[in-house]
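Title: Comparing notes on inverse folding

I've been comparing how different people in this forum approach sequence design from structure. To keep things fair, I'm posting one structure and asking everyone to reply with a full sequence. Here's the target:
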């Protein structure tokens, strides 16, 4: 929810630096100890700080350093802007995957959402999370998540998922890869957890009946998750029942693709990235980073779908005061075309010059709709009440003035519902 914050004029003040970070972590950051060495850290050269901060666990507390100073009214106003956007797009259920090192601010936001729900002002179902990025945060994180589950449990607000950042991103070489980057010869950042560490946490999460959602961009990150789940399933068998979701999955090893369905691990993609998550010739920079073989075999969502794995869609990019990247119809269009053209409802700077390979990974409109509806509901554990128009489920549905199943794929991102019904009440 980081993009829902209204910063004050003049920006953060140095005297209030890192106030949003819990006291113990704030002390570590102020001493400039790397939050997750090798993955999220403060760059140094010859023993001296360069001023460059790598990845979220180190950078987010600085970005949100005065967020705790916001008033309840300011937080409510920011949340209302996001709710208005969501209703306009017809989004009525959301998973908040959170940001690292900002648990105190997350709690404030969830507190405001809980109050809005009690007042009947939350026309969206929100499933929240508690975020960790390292094994030494797991014990405290598990107890805090249990507390969040107890305290944020209203009709339209639930928190029962731990979010873990297993690796970083490709473009700054912090994604965890099985084979080295083509340009540096390194395999990127180490995964935040080893398979043994993650397996131990998964067993505790299973005992507490809490789900897990993991940021996994590189193939080494997702393999670690699959290996950990396999360890736990071999030990617990059918007693292992919680939902484990890998998000993003930009690079995948061939031999791991069939394991998702076999192990019951969910795959969550960000389809608006499937044009190459860049602009112009988005492929060439990725070839320089990954080599041609891997760069032309990214985002293999169709292969995973066809394997029988549960695949769901989501959005991730956030732009200050701009929710356009969260538009689900943008995700649907790019998921179907793997291209951002002049017909796409997206900034001109994001347009690409060709469909991103492999074109065999393009999805159909039926698959995009299922991934955004019932599959997303299954991932969140709310399929008994949401995700499809079925007798006995919540009366959440949208009305469109065109047939989505036959609409042109290019320009699909301009789609909007004419009516939005949530819980049997028309909210737009």
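Reply #1:
Here's my take.
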């Amino acid at each position: 929810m980081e993009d829902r914050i209204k910063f004050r004029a003049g920006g953060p003040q140095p005297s209030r630096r890192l106030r949003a970070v819990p006291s113990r972590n704030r002390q570590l950051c102020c001493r400039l100890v790397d939050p997750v060495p090798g993955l999220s850290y403060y760059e140094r050269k010859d023993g001296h700080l360069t001023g460059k901060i790598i990845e979220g666990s180190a950078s987010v507390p600085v970005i949100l350093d005065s967020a705790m100073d916001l008033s309840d009214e300011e937080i409510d106003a920011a949340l209302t802007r996001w709710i208005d956007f969501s209703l306009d797009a017809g989004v009525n259920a959301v998973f908040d995957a959170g940001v690292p090192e900002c648990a105190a601010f997350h709690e404030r936001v969830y507190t405001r959402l809980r109050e809005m729900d009690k007042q009947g002002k939350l026309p969206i179902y929100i499933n929240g999370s508690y975020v960790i990025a390292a094994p030494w945060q797991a014990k405290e994180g598990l107890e805090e998540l249990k507390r969040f589950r107890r305290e944020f449990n209203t009709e339209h607000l639930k928190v029962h998922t731990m979010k873990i950042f297993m690796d970083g991103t490709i473009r700054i070489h912090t994604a965890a890869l099985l084979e080295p980057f083509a340009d540096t010869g390194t395999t990127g950042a180490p995964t935040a957890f080893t398979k043994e560490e993650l397996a131990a946490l998964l067993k505790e999460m299973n005992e507490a009946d809490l789900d897990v959602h993991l940021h996994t961009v590189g193939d080494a990150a997702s393999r670690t998750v699959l290996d950990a789940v396999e360890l736990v399933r071999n030990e617990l068998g059918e007693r292992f029942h919680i939902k484990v979701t890998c998000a993003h999955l930009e690079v995948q090893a061939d031999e791991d693709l069939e394991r998702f369905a076999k192990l019951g691990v969910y795959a969550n993609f960000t389809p608006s990235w499937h044009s190459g998550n860049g602009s112009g010739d988005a492929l060439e920079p990725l070839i320089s980073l990954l080599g041609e073989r891997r760069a032309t075999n990214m985002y293999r969502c169709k292969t995973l779908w066809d394997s029988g794995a549960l695949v769901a869609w989501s959005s991730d990019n956030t732009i200050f005061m701009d929710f356009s990247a969260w538009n689900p119809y943008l995700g649907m269009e790019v998921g179907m075309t793997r291209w951002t053209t002049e017909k796409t409802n997206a900034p001109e700077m994001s347009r690409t010059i060709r469909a991103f390979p492999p074109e065999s990974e393009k999805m159909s409109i039926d698959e995009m709709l299922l991934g955004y509806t019932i599959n997303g509901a299954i991932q969140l554990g709310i399929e008994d009440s949401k995700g499809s128009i079925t007798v006995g489920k919540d009366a959440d549905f949208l009305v469109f003035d065109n047939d989505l199943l036959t609409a042109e794929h290019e320009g699909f991102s301009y789609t909007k519902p004419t009516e939005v019904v949530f819980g049997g009440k028309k909210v737009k």
